[in-house]
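Team,

Forwarding the record for the chain on the shared tracking sheet. I've put the sequence and predicted structure together so nobody has to dig through attachments.
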Amino acid sequence: MRRDKERGTGSMLAVLVTTVMTALIGLTALVAVPGASAATLFGDDFEDGDSAGWSRSGGSWSVVSDGSRVLRQTGTSSDARAVAGAGWSDQAVQARVKPIAFNGGGRYAAVLARAQSTSAYYFLGLGNSGSVILGKRTGGSPVTLASAPATVTPGTWYTLRLEAFGTTLRGFVNNVQVVSATDTSYASGRAGLAGYYASASFDDVLVTDVGGPSEPPVTPTVSPPPPGRCTTSGAPVGFASVNAWGQNGTTGGAGGPTVEVDTAAELISAIGQAGPLNICVRGTITVPAGMYDVSSDKSIVGIGSDAGISGGGLNIGLPPDDAITSPPANAVHNVIIRNLSFRDASDDSINVQMFSHHVWIDHNDLASGYDGLIDIKRGSSYVTVSWNHLHNHTKNMLLGHDDGAGAQDIGRLKVSYHHNWFNQTPQRNPRVRFGEPVHVFNNYYYYNTDVGVACQANAGCVVEGNYFDRVEEPVTDSYAGPTGRCVARANVFVNESGRPDCGGTVQEPSIYYSYTLDDPNTVRTIVTTGAGVGRI
């Protein structure tokens, strides 16, 4: 899906009107006046199945299914380039890039900035010689301006961002700056992608008019729990605490035995067993690619601060079935996932589906997956997602299935998101369809370059007490596709953050459960101190 957006005087006026109306209807907005508004200049995730708007030269470009839809350049015998957008000056061009194959030495898969044409541009490329290359094309062969060593593995996704501001060029890989240079050749141009005698897949292209931070926010030092500790006690706040659908709150494996696992075989066997079970995970377990089914009444908890799962993910729910439109008696329920790091999942890191209910996902660290980090869909409900640190990932969290999934989703998808750290995750923080109420409170949003909370398809979202730090579009009910409804109140907006674009009425979460809202001005400190692993 392609998004082009310029924010000018008209939209700034709309922001002012929205702010005034918000005050008049009694909603509280705690704001710091920004110096300027950031803007998304262009975006394309190719989910619409086409590459309209892209001009191509060389190679063979097409939109293919690779989990989600991506733009792929096949073959390694061409100098292949594709450009899109307008003639911007200052720009940050970001995309997910998966190199597939290279034809000889000095080849690369790259993002382009300030492209004058398909033969004149700046580029940031992943090279087959174990390096990241920042360079330019001036009609002939590539010219290297700077390079840095890097592990480049074909078949692996990387997030590249090339920034061109004034005469300064900066290159980032997975949100870490690795190269920089100065050059005066090009002052403006389009964004683009390239496979220089290389085949590659490209996804989630995003162009903004603001650069990345020179360094990420400092995470306060927190003493880890004693070695060997596996905390299976505790209770959730939010929808996972509600008495509904025959389950009173979320207790996981309470009442069942406790087992310790440290191999893939032990983990996969334990999570699939019948009956209550407390599963303590020791160390990082690498599992084969795939998502592994979790049965009801399970607590899956990491020991200490270095436990986790890599290579695959966890699936909570029955197999998808569009014919089922109400919760079945055997729906998976009463599951707790806590204190685990998730890395390099081949699909979703955590997937909740098919009317699963009473799920608590708490104090985890999730990054660098393939699709969603935490996706909740197909009628699932009574879920709390709390105190997680999410980073180094683009399509972060999806709530709800596609636009035609109303039969399963309407009246369900009741989810609470609180005290999570959305750390440089561009979009889906979360992206919501159909659910009501979806309660998003006391989260810390940091440098989300596309959108924070996107409420669509008649979903109803209450977004309150959050801290938005350098977030262009913090809350919206009109991100893409059918519109939703949202109420935004008592939020803080700092460092060039935008303002909520909200309308309509939404059910109050307090109808379902009690909660205490932290002072939003303290949320940044509270969340960066308490979110993630090793902190329960």
